[in-house]
Inverse folding.
């Protein structure tokens, strides 16, 4: 580990000496190997820069599309806007990268199974990869999350237990609860948050490897939705490794986006704080980022990269979710739309510039939180069907061109 103090590999939680978030360290020459890594699905090809010695189970995670914006970017005056569509992962979210590594770590540790708590996407991912690896999976789920996410975890074999206020007690009490349950069951603690398990986000950093390979090189700006902070931090770590290994020459500025209704990182950044406080509330309707605590590692990544934190309203994210669907053909969950919704404000404040290469992270697929077009779909399913007749179909279809864009 490298954070001023060395700890044995496998140490969970924070550094017992200074309380810092632990971070795996790799030889510089390992990063230089990335220039010869073969493209394709499965993150096991990056094992030289992952904290595991055994092969990772794979369902085809990674190698997700990097898509140039066709309409949203040009409408804002952005010349090089890209979307990294993590919804194309097997379970529909970026957490699959973490889950593949978590399952391998659980087996390597000799545990009887894997334990986590989740707002939804991590539950779906870990359940799928535990099944692929042949180990048990226990999910403590926050009540009231989208049923689609719960169905995924159940369908792939996890035991799911709703726990009242599982995130509301704060990170320290949650960590203690998970530690105690994991110890009693001999399960591997795979909560996807670096202050609890510092290894799992190493799978997520592979996003940076893929972006740099596709552009090519590092982008100027990376804009990510932020809940606990692992996705933003992991990418920053990946870009640092690429530069250290001589694969890329530059580093991007990292930009973290939160809802104004659940803004722990945002408040800390605006206040110039050194740590991120735990808020007494999280009232966002965006399930993927509705958390009252963000890790200090995300705040550090923003500062080290010269980036910023920005806030959006829930309504702005939902509106951009609809725009991405109708203007870009991308059906994403609301958390994915948050970084795109923030672009206009970032541009107005001079925090991004029109000619820069900007990558927005689309964290998960639209079916994860499937309210978009829900009412329209219900209305169509209940409506009187059109007759099997050319004239009737043409009459109901509207004027020429009206079907090319959603109303």
């Amino acid at each position: 580990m490298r954070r001023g103090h060395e700890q044995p590999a496998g140490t969970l939680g924070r550094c017992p000496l200074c309380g810092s978030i632990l971070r795996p360290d790799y030889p510089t020459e390992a990063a230089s190997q990335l220039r010869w890594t073969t493209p394709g699905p499965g993150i096991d090809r990056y094992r030289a820069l992952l904290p595991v010695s055994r092969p990772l189970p794979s369902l085809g995670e990674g190698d997700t599309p990097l898509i140039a914006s066709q309409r949203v970017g040009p409408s804002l005056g952005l010349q090089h806007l890209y979307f990294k569509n993590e919804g194309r992962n097997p379970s529909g979210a970026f957490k699959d990268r973490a889950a593949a590594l978590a399952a391998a770590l659980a087996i390597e540790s000799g545990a009887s199974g894997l334990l986590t708590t989740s707002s939804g996407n991590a539950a779906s991912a870990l359940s799928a990869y535990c099944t692929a690896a042949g180990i048990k999976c226990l999910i403590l789920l926050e009540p009231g999350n989208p049923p689609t996410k719960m169905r995924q975890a159940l369908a792939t074999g996890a035991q799911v237990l709703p726990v009242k206020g599982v995130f509301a007690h704060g990170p320290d009490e949650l960590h203690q609860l998970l530690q105690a349950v994991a110890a009693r069951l001999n399960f591997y603690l795979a909560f996807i948050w670096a202050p609890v398990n510092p290894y799992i986000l190493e799978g997520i950093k592979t996003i940076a490897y893929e972006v740099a390979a596709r552009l090519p090189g590092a982008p100027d700006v990376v804009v990510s939705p932020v809940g606990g902070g692992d996705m933003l931090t992991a990418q920053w770590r990946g870009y640092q490794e690429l530069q250290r290994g001589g694969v890329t020459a530059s580093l991007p500025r990292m930009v973290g986006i939160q809802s104004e209704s659940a803004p722990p990182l945002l408040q800390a950044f605006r206040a110039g704080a050194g740590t991120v406080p735990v808020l007494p509330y999280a009232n966002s309707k965006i399930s993927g980022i509705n958390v009252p605590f963000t890790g200090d590692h995300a705040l550090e990544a923003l500062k080290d990269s010269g980036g910023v934190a920005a806030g959006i309203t829930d309504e702005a994210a939902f509106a951009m979710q609809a725009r991405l669907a109708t203007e870009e053909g991308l059906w994403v969950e609301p958390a994915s739309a948050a970084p795109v919704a923030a672009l206009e404000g970032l541009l107005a404040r001079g925090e991004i510039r029109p000619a820069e290469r900007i990558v927005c992270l689309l964290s998960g697929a639209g079916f994860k939180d499937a309210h978009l077009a829900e009412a329209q779909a219900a209305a169509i399913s209940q409506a009187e069907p059109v007759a099997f007749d050319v004239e009737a179909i043409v009459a109901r279809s509207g004027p020429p061109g009206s079907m090319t864009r959603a109303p």
In short: The domain at 66-93+205-369 is CATH 3.40.50.1100 (Rossmann fold). Residues 95-109 form the longest helix (15 residues). The mean pLDDT is 89. Strands lie at 66-68, 80-85, 113-118, 136-141, 159-162, 187-189, 221-225, 253-259, 308-312, 357-362.
